[in-house]
From TrEMBL:
NCBIfam families: PRK07678.1 (NF005812). It comes from the Bacteria. CDD domains: OAT_like. Belongs to the class-III pyridoxal-phosphate-dependent aminotransferase family. The keyword Transferase applies. It holds the Pfam family Aminotran_3. One of its GO terms (molecular function) is transaminase activity. This is Aspartate aminotransferase family protein. Keywords: Aminotransferase, Pyridoxal phosphate, Transferase.
Length: 461
């Protein structure tokens, strides 16, 4: 035990000295988990503690950890062909592109990159160029929603609707506009959920018209806003947005970086809403995080406008590593596991179970709303259920650290500037066992219960 502790201290000291973490700043008594291994839905840290990873890393390890099939696929592919750029072609990319079209259930062509941000950047460039090449030369703007996250690069961040992630890095790419998200929990009193959602869709049309229809290239949205606090739209919303896009010649880009690959209980999130996007972007669950890979799926007839080699009509965009053969081989193995183990159906089943288990907890004094989309859940914490004031960050953090102390990793999302960093998030591996889900529910409930008991004690003190 002592050895593990001193080894951990050594790693933490070096971490503190050499490693610049994503998002979090450590130091001042806060230390990261140094994860040394993982199996199924569980990760182990350098001290030997085990945690159920109910965030699948960063919403991505859909098939769970420790899958030999995926490791073997990478190994075999690296031995036979480790790398070749997709300025030419290779078999794993061809096979994966075909497979993705099958999963998408539509007529698409696939462009590979390495990350969700890059997949979205490619989508924006394709949309602008397509509009230009069909004679719509002034269409360069994109409409997105506040609270949505679309990535960290200058265009994807511009599409993001969370001010706190942006204001230190502006000016970002220009031409990105935002509208109100369909946050049914905060709809005006007296309005039905559906009417409110349709009004939110109407806000998109208003922006398109007010900006000048001939200036708008596309609308980008996730099927459900994930990182911005799990905002799940009414079933009518996305269809209405699709109709608006069609009416005005605006491309509908669906960001499936989190909602794709079974997370929503269907293969892709938009399959829940019966829409046919013009462009679909995906990453994370594509390889379950085993290797970096992302894709931008583009409707075939849009792609056809890029095929005229006479002029500069081809897509003048390249990334060195996009569609790396080993990453494609891993993605194929990952999709095979999902098919063999019917993980899309399992996601729906486990999502329903989790939603049933948590439903009555909406009466908890600090829980304002519980929202789920397949095996993805957001629990919105408030300090006052009548005013819906967001719970203080200290309470949210306390719940998260109590969960961690009991071996459960959960997430926290929302929008800091707007005071909404108050949504607990759950996005466990789709291959979680029944026991994993039981542990998750039991631990979370016990922590939520303790929070109330402690608050009562606080009142009487
Ligand atoms: N879109 C969405 C919806 C995301 O959640 C993310 C990442 N969390 C991205 C895009 C960007 O992906 P990446 O971090 O791989 O660039």
């Amino acid at each position: 035990m002592l050895d593990l502790e001193s080894a951990t201290r050594e790693w933490l000291d070096k971490d503190d000295r050499y490693l610049w973490h994503s998002m979090a700043s450590y130091g001042a008594g806060k230390e990261p988990l140094v994860i040394t291994g993982a199996e199924g839905s569980w990760v182990t840290d350098a001290r030997g503690n085990r945690y159920l990873d109910a965030m699948s890393g960063l919403w991505c390890v859909n098939v769970g950890y420790g899958r030999e099939e995926l490791a073997k696929a990478a190994y075999e592919q690296m031995k036979s062909l480790a790398y070749y750029p997709l300025t030419q072609s290779h078999v794993p990319a061809i096979k994966l592109a075909e497979k993705l079209c099958e999963w998408l259930e539509g007529d698409y062509v696939i462009f590979f990159s390495n990350s969700g941000s890059e997949a979205n950047e490619a989508a924006f460039k394709i949309a602008r160029q397509y509009q230009e090449q069909i004679g719509e030369r002034n269409r360069y703007k994109f409409v997105s929603r506040y609270r949505a996250y679309h990535g960290s690069s200058m265009g994807a961040l511009a599409a993001t609707g969370q001010a706190q992630r942006k204001y230190k890095y502006e000016p970002l790419a220009s031409g990105f506009l935002h509208v109100r998200p369909p946050d049914g929990y905060r709809k005006p009193d007296g309005q039905s959920e559906e009417d409110f959602n349709l009004a939110c869709a109407q806000a998109i049309e208003d922006v398109i018209v007010w900006e000048g229809v001939e200036t708008v290239a596309g609308v980008i949205m996730e099927p459900a806003i994930t990182g911005g606090g799990v905002i799940v739209p009414h079933p009518s919303y996305m269809k209405r947005v699709e109709d608006i896009c069609r009416k005005h010649g605006v491309l509908l880009i669906i960001d499936e970086v989190i909602c794709g690959f079974g997370r929503s209980g269907r293969k892709f999130g938009h399959h829940n809403f019966g829409v046919k996007p013009d462009i679909v972007t995906m990453a994370k669950g594509l390889t379950s995080g085993y290797l970096p890979l992302s894709a931008t799926a583009v409707r075939k007839d849009i792609y056809e406008k890029f095929r005229d080699q006479q002029s500069y009509s081809h897509f003048r965009h390249v990334n060195t590593f996009g569609g790396n053969p080993a990453a494609c081989a891993v993605a194929l193995a990952n999709l095979e596991v999902m098919e063999k183990e019917q993980l899309v159906d399992r996601s729906r089943l486990l999502g329903e179970r989790l939603a049933d288990e948590m439903a009555e907890w909406v009466s908890h004094p600090y829980i304002g709303d519980i929202r789920s989309f397949g095996f993805l859940m957001g629990i919105e914490l408030v300090s006052d259920k009548a005013t819906k004031d967001p719970a203080p960050l200290a309470l949210v953090n306390r719940i998260i650290s109590s969960c961690k102390a009991q071996g459960l990793i959960i997430g926290k999302n929302g929008d800091t500037v707007a005071g909404f960093n108050n949504v607990l998030t759950l996005s466990p591996p789709l291959a979680s066992t029944d026991e994993d889900v039981a542990f998750l529910v039991r631990t979370l409930k016990s922590v939520l219960q303790d929070v109330v008991a402690d608050a009562r004690l606080g009142d009487s003190a």
